[in-house]
Amino acid sequence: PLVTSEKIMLRAQKEGYAVGAFNVENMEMVQAVIEAAEEMRAPVLLQTTPSTVRYAGLEVYYASIAALAKKATVPIAVHLDHGESFDLVVRAIRAGYTSVMIDGSHGSFEENIELTKRVVAVAAPNEIPVEAELGKIGGKEDDLDGGDGGGYTDPEKAKEFAERTGISSLAVAIGTAHGIYSGIPKLDVERLKAIRKIVEIPLVLHGASGLLDKDVVECISEGICKVNFATELRIAFSDGVKSVLSEKPDTFDPKAYGKAGRERVKELVKNRMTVCGCTGKY
Ligand code: 13P
Ligand code: ZN
Ligand code: NA
C-alpha cells in the first residue's frame, strides 16, 4: 500500500537497516522499483526531484506510483526529493505525496531553520513527514550545485536544527556527493557516529551512487535509515535503452527499449535493497 515514510523509517531505525529511496523519471522506472520492492519484500521510497517534477508534473508521478502502490503488498512512499521551495512542497502534498524533503541547505543556518519550520508547520497537520538537510552534500543535484562538498554537518548544530524544526528525518553531509565520484570518497564515519549519538530522528544518506557497498553498509550500521540512489538508476535505464538501439538501430517501438531499460533498473534496485538490508522485512 501507499504509506507515509515515517513508520517505515522508524522501523528501519529500530531494526538497524535502511530503506532504499530511488529517484524515478518515467513510468518504466516506477514499475521497475515497485516490482523490485515486491519481489524483495522490501519497504521503499520512490522520489522525484524538482527537475523531474518539471519534466512531467507532480500529478503524473503521483498517479502512476499510487496506482501501483495500492496494489502492492509492501509499504511504498512517494517522496519529494530536494524540495527547493515552500511552494513546491505544498503542491506536492496537495498532489498526494506522502513524504517531502525541504532542502534549505543553500541558505544560512537560521534561514534553513526558518524555511524548514514553515514546511513542517504545513506538513504536520497533514501527517506528512519532512526530511531536511544540514551541511552541504557535494556534486550537482538537479540545478543545485553543492560544489566541492565542503561544509560537513556539525553534530551540535544538527541536534539544535532537529529540535528547533521538528523534522522527521535529517540528511547529513559526511563526504558523499551526488553523481558519480572521480575517485573513491572517504566518508567521515566518526562524524556520523557523533551525530547519531545526539540526534534521535532517522538520518539520511544522499549521493549513494558510486559508493562502495561496504561503505554504505558501515553508514547503515552507524545510524543511517534511508539511502538515496539516483544517478545509478539513470545510467541503468539508459544503458538498457542503448543496448537495444545499438543492436537494432531501426527499432521504433518504445516498448522494446523501454522494457530493456526497465529490466536493468529492476536488477540494480534489487541489488541496492540487498545492500541496504531491507529485504524480507514485509
Ligand atoms: P546519487 O545521484 O549520487 O545516487 O545521489 C542521489 C541523491 O542523493 C538523491 O537525492
Ligand atoms: Zn540528494
Ligand atoms: Na553519488
TrEMBL record:
Keywords: Metal-binding, Zinc
Entry keyword annotation includes Transcription regulation: no
Note on cofactor: Binds 2 Zn(2+) ions per subunit. One is catalytic and the other provides a structural contribution.
Domain of life: Bacteria
Database matches in Pfam families: F_bP_aldolase
One annotated GO molecular function: aldehyde-lyase activity
Residues forming coiled coils: none
GO biological process, one term: carbohydrate metabolic process
SUPFAM superfamilies linked to this entry: Aldolase
Alphabetized InterPro entries for the sequence: Aldolase_TIM (IPR013785), Class_II_FBP_aldolase (IPR050246), FBA_II (IPR000771)
Active-site residues (renumbered): D81
Residues binding dihydroxyacetone phosphate, per UniProt: G179, G207, A208, S209, N228, F229, A230, T231
Cofactors: Zn(2+)
UniProt xrefs under PROSITE patterns: ALDOLASE_CLASS_II_2 (PS00806)
PANTHER family, A to Z: D-TAGATOSE-1,6-BISPHOSPHATE ALDOLASE, D-TAGATOSE-1,6-BISPHOSPHATE ALDOLASE SUBUNIT GATY-RELATED
Protein name, entry field: Tagatose 1,6-diphosphate aldolase GatY/KbaY
Source species: Hydrogenoanaerobacterium saccharovorans
